[in-house]
Amino acid sequence: MEKLYEALGISPEVSAYAQKILAGLSERFQKIDETAEYNQLKVIKAMQDARVCAECFQATTGYGYNDLGRETLEKVYANVFHTEDALVRPQITCGTHALALALSANLRPGDEMISISGKPYDTLEEVIGIRPSCGSLAEYGVTYRQVELLPNGTFDLEGIRSALGEKTKLVAIQRSKGYLTRPTLSVEQIGEAIAFVKKMNPEIICMVDNCYGEFVQQMEPSDFGADMVVGSLIKNPGGGLAPIGGYIAGTKTCVERAAYRLTSPGIGKEVGATLGVMQSFYQGLFLAPTVTAAALKGAIFAANLYESLGFPVVPGGKEERYDIIQAVEFGKPEGVIAFCEGIQSAAPVDSYVTPEPWAMPGYDSDVIMAAGAFVQGSSIELSADGPIKPPYAVYFQGGLTWPHAKLGILKSLQRLYEKGLVTWENA
Ligand SMILES: *Cc1c(COP(=O)(O)O)cnc(C)c1O
């Protein structure tokens, strides 16, 4: 093993240091494996109950009428999330699309939506119209308000009480912190906020942006009263195998409205050819609990490793986790660059390319990105990115297997070590 690590460029000093950190993590890892076991059983039960069969993997084309695979998969998702129905489609191109679909399908002119977990994920700003954009909800006469989380990261119930009004039709909650430094919300916390909203007005639709949160805990927000949970298949629930796609699981009415919006009024869920991606959707969902566990172990390993070396990490090494994203602050651009180079050099694909900071659309600074993925842009695969601006933090996530996540983190440390950016003395 030692030899193979050396052949992959990991020096004995780096190996030995990492080993010390790893030795302290076995209890955490055991808990993660327990959650994975629970969720694996849940997924298998969901597939059995929906009577998944080999014919489900057949491709359909054209209108895709009576697509057994599509209809059964939507039952499986509804079973997993304990919802009345689900819409799971390759025609939903990404997480942002799934969220835009859920929102635009369930809101009408004159309605108001309120985000009660503060600022939503960047790409939703244009969907909602916080930043003016062609086709935003604002253009259709949907108004928006936002209630910030309290400084300690919990819901501001008083703020929510005073924000809810006559026009409030939908409340949005984002489970993951995304690329902010607030804490991620647990499903229990989300459940309390939903109960609070429902007590004030049971008609309000509670939607949870579930991106990066699926299978991190044993329960999902839909087990705690969410009317819709929404996410991307190139994150956790696709298990690394889904090449595209998004899902909305929720009440019959919410899902039906989303289907009418995705295809057409009157047609809804009845069409949508699956073009041969079904096997990857099923098999990816089957693998998703253990893949998510691998990514979580990687995040916890990195948090503890870099924390021990004196770098600020969010979440902290000892903190409970409710999503798979890890941030490490390096305080200078060289650290961010070295970290990303390390992640890239550990990849099974494109390991020989060197990532460089670049100006990217939508960012106000140069950004460096590391990804050597089988599916383009897939962030359940080991990937990292860092905006080149203070506090020079790198955000990383994913890893389809724990040994790969571990190698990526070792390679990142190796790079920092070779460039003289870490010394064991500050450990
Ligand atoms: C990734 C993400 C999205 C958007 O998903 P894309 O597939 O990138 O469009 C939305 N919300 C959260 C919290 C996310 O992590």
How would you explain this protein's 3D organization?
- This protein has two domains: 2-39 and 289-426, Methioning gamme-lyase, C-terminal domain (Aspartate Aminotransferase, domain 1), CATH 3.90.1150; 60-284, Type I PLP-dependent aspartate aminotransferase-like (Major domain) (Aspartate Aminotransferase, domain 2, 3-Layer(aba) Sandwich), CATH 3.40.640.10.
- The mean pLDDT is 96.
- Helices cover 39% and strands 14% of the residues.
- The chain has a seven-stranded mixed sheet with strand order 1-7-6-5-4-2-3, with helices on both faces. It has a six-stranded antiparallel sheet with strand order 8-9-13-12-11-10, covered by helices on one side.
- It contains twelve helices and 13 strands.
- The chain is globular.
- Strand 4 (168-174), helix 8 (187-200) and strand 5 (205-209) form a beta-alpha-beta unit.
- It has 427 residues and is of the alpha/beta class.
- Helix 11 crosses helix 12 (402-418).
- Pyridoxal-5'-phosphate is lined by residues 94-96, 121, 123, 174, 176, 178, 209, 211-212, 232.
Protein topology:
Elements: H1 2-7, H2 12-23, H3 26-49, H4 68-81, E1 85-89, H5 95-106, E2 112-115, H6 122-128, E3 143-146, H7 157-163, E4 168-174, H8 187-200, E5 205-209, E6 228-232, E7 246-250, H9 252-262, H10 278-308, E8 313-314, E9 326-329, H11 333-345, E10 358-359, E11 366-371, E12 383-387, E13 393-397, H12 402-418
Parallel strand pairs: 2-3, 2-4, 4-5, 5-6
Antiparallel strand pairs: 1-7, 6-7, 8-9, 9-13, 10-11, 11-12, 12-13
The structure holds pyridoxal-5'-phosphate (PLP).
